Amino acid sequence: MEVGREFTREVGLGGIEALIQLLAKVPGLGPRSARRAALHMLKRRESLMEPLARALREAADNVKTCSVCNNIDTVDPCTICAGTKRDRSQICVVEDIGDLWAMERVVGFRGLYHVLGGTLSALDGIGPEDLNVGGLVERAASEEVKEVILATNATVDGQTTAHYIADRLKDANVIISGLAHGVPVGGELDYLDEGTLSAALKARKPV
Amino acid sequence: MEVGREFTREVGLGGIEALIQLLAKVPGLGPRSARRAALHMLKRRESLMEPLARALREAADNVKTCSVCNNIDTVDPCTICAGTKRDRSQICVVEDIGDLWAMERVVGFRGLYHVLGGTLSALDGIGPEDLNVGGLVERAASEEVKEVILATNATVDGQTTAHYIADRLKDANVIISGLAHGVPVGGELDYLDEGTLSAALKARKPV
Ligand SMILES: [Zn+2]
Ligand SMILES: [Zn+2]
Known about the structure:
The structure is a homodimer. By secondary structure, chain A is of the alpha/beta class. Chain A has 2 domains: 2-62, Helicase, Ruva Protein, domain 3; 72-206, 3-Layer(aba) Sandwich (Dna Topoisomerase Vi A Subunit, Chain: A, domain 2). In chain A, 45% of the residues lie in helices and 11% in strands. Chain A contains 9 helices and 7 strands. In chain A, the strands form 2 sheets. A 5-stranded mixed sheet of chain A has the order 4-3-5-6-7. The longest helix of chain A has 18 residues, at 45-62. Chain A is elongated, with a radius of gyration of 21 Å. Chain A starts with a helix and ends with a strand. Residues 1-12 of chain A have low confidence and may be disordered. Chains A and B meet through α1, α2, α3, α4 and β2 of A and α1, α2, α3, α4 and β2 of B. Bound molecules: zinc ion (2 copies). One zinc ion is lined by residues 66, 68-69, 71, 77-78, 80-81 of chain A.
């Protein structure tokens, strides 16, 4: 890495080198594409670099976790939880905010959500207390909730988690359903095409 | 795109959606990886999102184009042009700042540079007046410059540009050289195009 260090010191890229190193930490960008991205943005300062700096700053300053469902938004409760047009009889349980986004964007699900923040995992030492399950049990006890849709990933950990949640909800007066097969085994929701995800939602079954 | 618009409005991602759309314009990130990148950063606000916002802001505010060589840096003349340890007898002519970075980082070239800002291109309507050639002719007239290395890409436009520049420099008292064509170090002959292989054979040297 002698050459790399030499580069930074001699060329005095200073701020640019720091920028490149941070960009290289963004998923999807490696060191080489980070350089390309930095250069691309430096050539589009007003149309891309400055707006992106502002958007990052604003998101970092204003985004918070919804105290009801664990979604992230600029308001708490989040826009979904506070939405007047949402079907409040259904709660879709997802592992991660990325999965919530997939359900919203791809499927157009119109109920409410509950974000667990992960799955049970013996390997990673993640137990029930690490997931946001207590809040879900409370919400499911409410009169207006009729159905809890377990939309955890079709992985071993995702399905273990679904069974655990179904068990925790067995005394709640709700239908508990899961996404139908159609979700490929081992598949992550975030990577699914619209057809598969829509079909899986439509054909959901009691667990 | 009805679903997409619906998503933005209903979910009220506001700043997040704007952030995702800007990230999707960064080369290397598409719409899907932009969402993943946004989520990744939202989970690493202090370690990644805020530092990146600052680095982008600082680069946007402080980076300028070198009035001598067209490099970008936080100072003008750039650190290379102002460097006391650079070999001022050599000027390496590159198409783009990315090529300058490659020469610095990969090759460790220790002379000076001249960034053209593109190549001549009949197709894209880029003529000599669009490139930073006049400045190069002036620099090459200086006593201290002994050699101009034409390191434009080995494309048709790159080579056309190199020939054009060589012609413009024919009255300057400098050696004009170009990068040798040959087998890339570590390259397998089998994968090389005929032109490269022919050039490598023609330029063969005693071992
Ligand atoms: Zn919420
Ligand atoms: Zn310079």
